[in-house]
Amino acid sequence: MAIKLDHVIVPSKDKLASAQLFAEIFGLEVKPVEGRFAQVPIDENLTIDFADDEHTRDILHFVPEKLESHHYAFHVSDEEFDGIFEQVKAKGLVYGSGPTTDTDGKVGDRHGGKALYFRELNGHLLEVLTAQ
Q: Beta strand 113-119 with 95-96: parallel, antiparallel or unpaired?
């Protein structure tokens, strides 16, 4: 049996703004908002679902004013990495070379590949890496 991740719910203060920023940085599209999520399809199997409504607060037990930072990591090609890095810089986001050095303004080296860490609108730490 092949197990595939279907979706990840990302707690957000503003689901649409968060989804749009994520989609712009990663070169993806936001699906039309239907219901409680602003969804960004990663591929045919996985969506990143940004949530900010009352029902989702009950499910996830989060309060937008007290969002806890989560860490999301994405493996990409070198070409995709370069495009993402350009978007991060163009949007003026602070970035860094590691999870504890996410503000040093450098690209990291991880397992012989490139690594980039930056925080999105809700303070979640996003990691983009080219080698596993």
A: antiparallel
Q: Where are the alpha helices (DSSP H) in 39-112?
A: 54-60, 78-90
CATH code, domain with 123 = 3.10.180.10
Structure tokens belonging to residue 4: 């595939």
Return d(Cα 10, Cα 20) in angstroms, integer: 13
pLDDT digits (tens, 9 = 90+) for 17-66: 999 999 999 999 999 998 889 999 999 999 999 988 766 667 666 666 66
What pTM did the predictor assign? 0.88
Number of alpha carbons in the 13 Å side-chain half-sphere of residue 110: 22
Residues 59 and 13 in one domain: yes
DSSP 130: S
